[in-house]
Amino acid sequence: MGRIELQGLGKQYGEVTAVADVDLSVAEGEVIALLGPSGCGKTTTLRMIAGLEDVTTGEIAIDGELVSRPGWRRSPDRRGLGMVFQNYAVWPHMTVEQNVGYPLKLRHEPRDARTARVEEALALVGMEGLGHRLPSQLSGGQQQRVALARALVMEPRALLLDEPLSNLDAKLRERMREEILDLHRRLGLTILHVTHDQTEAMVLSDRIVVMKEGRAVQIGTPRDIYTAPRTSFVAEFIGQANLIPARISGVESTHVVAELQASAESRARPIHCRPAEGLERRTNVAGNLFARPEAISLTAPGEGDLTGEVRRLTYLGDVQELHLTVDGRDWRVRLGHAAPPPETPTVGLVLEDPVFMPE
Amino acid sequence: MLKTTALAGTLATVLAAGAQAGTLTLYTSVPTEIMNDIETAFEAAHPEVDLEVFRSGTGNITAKIATEQEAGGVEADVIWVADFAYYETLKEDDLLMRYVPEAARAIPDTMKDPEGYYTGARMIAMVMAYNTTLVEEAPQAWEDLLDAKWEDQIVMPNPIYSGAALVTTGALVMEKGLSFYEDLRANGATVVRGNSGAARSIGAGEYPVGMTLDYIVRGLKEQGSTIDLVYPEEGSVAIPSPIGIIAGTDNEADAKTFVDFAVSEEGQTALRELGSFIPVRPEMESPAGAPSLSEVADTAMETDWAFIRANTDWLRDRFTTIMLD
Amino acid sequence: MTPDSAPRPWIDILTGRYALLALSALALLLLIAFPLAEMLRRSFVDEGAFSLAHYVEVFTEPRNLRPFLNTALLGALTVAGSLALGIPAAWLVARTDIPTRGLVEAMFLIPYLIPPFIGAISWIQLLSPRIGYANKLWGWVFGTGTGPFDIYTLSGLTFVMVLHAYPFVYLTVRSALDRMDPSLEEAAAMAGAGRFQVLRHITLPMVLPGIAAGALLVLVDTIANFGIPALIGMQARFYVLTTQIYSYVYLGTFDGIRLAAALSSVLMFVAGAGVLLNDFWLRRRQYTTMTGKSTRPARVALGRWRGPVIALLALYGVAVIVAPMLAVLASAFLKAWGLPLRWENLTFDNFNYILFEYDLTRRAMTNSLLLALGAATIATGFGAVLAYLSSRTRMKGRQIVDVLVTLPHAIPGMVVALSMILAWSGVYGINLYNTIWIILVAYIARYVFFGFRNSVAALAQVHPSLEEAAYMSGANWLQSFRDVVVPLIRPGLLAGWFLIFMPTLRELTISILLWGPHTPTIGVAVFEMQDAGYFTASAAMATILLAVVLVGDFLLRRLTGARLST
Description:
The structure holds three protein chains of three kinds. By secondary structure, chain A is of the alpha+beta class. Helix content of chain A is about 25%, strand content about 35%. The longest helix of chain A has 18 residues, at about 170-185. Chain A is elongated. In chain B, strands 1, 2, 3, 4, 5, 6, 7, 8, 9 and 10 form a ten-stranded mixed sheet that branches. Chain B is globular and about 55 Å long. Chain B starts with a helix and ends with a helix. Helices cover about 75% and strands about 0% of the residues of chain C. Chain C has helices at about 10-15, 15-45, 55-60, 60-95, 100-115, 115-125, 135-140, 155-180, 180-190, 195-225, 225-235, 240-250, 255-285, 305-335, 350-355, 360-390, 400-410, 415-425, 435-460, 465-470, 475-505, 510-515, 520-530, 535-560; strands at about 45, 50. In chain C, helix 6 (about 115-125) packs across helix 8, helix 10 packs antiparallel against helix 13 and helix 16 packs parallel to helix 19 (about 435-460). Mean pLDDT of chain C is about 85; it is low at about 1-15. The chains are: A alpha+beta, B alpha/beta, C mainly alpha. Chains B and C meet through helix 1, strand 2, helix 3, strand 7 and helix 7 of B and helix 4, helix 12 and helix 16 of C.
């Protein structure tokens, strides 16, 4: 229970394309993060799965049953999905108990059973004993737990979360992340959540769907996305990325050879890099050379793959960040907390695992 | 709350509808207080009849009847207004039911329909009235109203609303021509809606003199108001305000009871005592201080009912143009 | 275990939004679009064929043309007077240090609460030629026996109209003054402008949109007004469009009705255009001077003018607010109109008469109460549904809903009433004429706007996610509406209910054309008595009505905490 299939999913608002051609298969019990900048279509996608929006193209199926296609959808009250909204949507005129008990009341659960299950749900989220309170008497975090309890009490097939943590402060956010993970461990629910925060996506997912301008640009585990981004956008969106324009000058079996479109200031030596998945492997294809800050080591100026001009070294406690300019671009290299600052104004950079990717 | 309101509303409508079924509906231009008293007297004498009165000016009533005709059925059962000529029109349109009450035999022929479709039930006369405190020398003839000394001090009823005023306009135009009204206008005469209003204005002192109906003045005088009347030299305009039963009424028996009552001695006495009307039965006495039926009839100005009937719209239009525009 | 809520497709369809939209659209068409269209159509029909004859007659016959000119004249005069009174009053309250500001404002706004025809009646009591109380007072003071006042003149009419309408100007100007950015005036002062120069060069021009809006409101209100021109103007031989329409309808002829329809159509366009102009253009311009800061303009100290101003205000209060009310009260207790105010001339008889004896008033009170209850409830409910459909769904035709709902509110009540007569007098099978239903239908058409507007505002406070959370919890549309939306908009609904209940209770311009033998309303009863010359009885009824209105409005304000606004 809790399998969700999206096939060729698309949504148009008149001239505007909000979502285009999204394919996704969610397995039972999987945690999926929909990640992207605002306006990328992630919330729209979630709402289509919930049944709150209709579908312009494509299909949605839950547990093998078709629930949405162009021209028809099963209404949201009959999908058995639990949803937590960004502003929690806790009903102000009902107590916590009434809020959480509402789904059960609709299903005509007898009062005793209802009360018991409400207690259970509240205990799950750590709100036991607060059933008689009104939402106005609760903090933001508490309201969110109520919303969560309400979604869980109906034993949903899957849980949908719309930016659940963005309204919380940093500490609370961390705690809630843990709690949601804990819940997932205990209940084994399929969870889909929308976020623009990459840390949240990394922590809270089995797989991440990176979206941009309505399209799913890359779907993969956090590790895959981090170490093998397919485009510069993904690379920059997750973690820190150092990029520099380059062109393929040679193709080998597992690697490509890239040459920088550089000025004379940086070295024009060809660099062997891993091709990004789906990259067109031909000579003269233009793209970006990509390296993570922690995958670069320093060497003498003039040596290594690139030359960078040192700007400053920032001490962050556990690591240090060296800010450089590489051919006019801002690059960063991660150094150990005790590493000495470079003595020369320029340094050589050795790229440990460079990747060549489209723009 | 919604349910209560809906229930109340439905109940009210049902009650109203039910009330209409068994009631006797009377359209009349008899002034309200007087009609109230007459209604009480009638219901005392005939408690089995539920009388509902719609009271308005003759003009309004004729308009209502015309509209109701169009819409599919006149609601009134009995009609009692002041325009004698109007009843001919109703008769021609087959809107009246023929009924000759026993007592009607006593009524003079000039005051009823020879074919028995309607009969006069009260004699009313348009006269001049004046405020006894403000006026030392009251006008004695209609012509006197044109005197400059009454400039801006005259009040009179509107023939569009009042049937009696319509008849008066017809009579005066026939006798004196339209110029009479043009001169009245030049003398600043004010037109109000009805005769009661005009009379009260005079009694209150708002206007020192004016035209109104005799019985209203008598009634006010009796109550102590500072008003009195003058039967003009040229003659008052006498109208035997008739009563008629609407054809096709579903309350024939009650309608006849009411008409019988109106022209019976009991009814005519009530009319005299409660409304200061001059009875249409010549053998009965007039109210104190009032001339007898025959006196009024003999001295009245000539009224050509046919003329009035044929020219109702023209008279109203001329009056409006001369006096109101 | 399956968490599905039990699928019940038939309820889905019935309570589905689409069904509701269809029903609402139908209701709106029948209620509003059809009667108005029918009225328009009839005005173009003569002897069964399309014809401009009625319009030609309307615009060429002096009897019809004159009301147009008169209406324009009255409008212009009333606007001028309202500006002359409203602007200084607004400035006084918004910009000076006048003490007891709340009381002063309340005083300025009282005429806004009083139904216009009651205002007319009270001024008639005061200013009737020869025997009005003001005349009597004058005569007593100056020993001349009587005074010079005659209300049945154009100046008398204008006077009463201005006193009724100036609050519109007061409210818009005061609001504009309040919202003005004080730094604009301060900058002028820094540049060397004296107090009056600041006023003339800075304040007044900036407040101009507010003034224009107020003036427009006064104009629209004036041309739609019936009670005052009917009770005062007709006797002064000053006919305006509304009284002319009234005369034509009461004539009862078919030609009369069609002429009335033609006049009404013109009136509808003129008045409607005015209101739409205000809503869509002027109102927007008013906001341009608004700032987000909460600093308010400095108050002008009245200094040595304080005394005289307070005295003037007191005089104003007595002469314009207290005197007319006392006049009505006095007449209500007199045995007969015109009698001197002495103990032996006072009685409770008038009240006794209208409350226990007089059929017309007793029927009227019952009718008005039932109509007000029914109209308020139905219009609030219907308005709420329409508001929901309009603000919550993306269904096409929402604009049309907005226009249809606003139209009967924007155009004069008489026009609405006339359209009802033409639509529902049996020509198309349904005959509501002479029944209480035609009045109810007219009221609902007229006042659904209030229910609509209030519900829209209340709904704005209910975030859509609250409903969506209900859906996700398994509620269908109707359950969500019942369990989440309604409880949250209930206060707004209640306020809207009263906002409709109070005006319908004392309404005149609609029922004056629609009433029948069994269906008078309170407004009609008062008007009829006054028009027929039963001044003491109408004064008694007016007194009762005034008390109800003032108490009701006070309670309403307390209940909703609302501030008066245009």
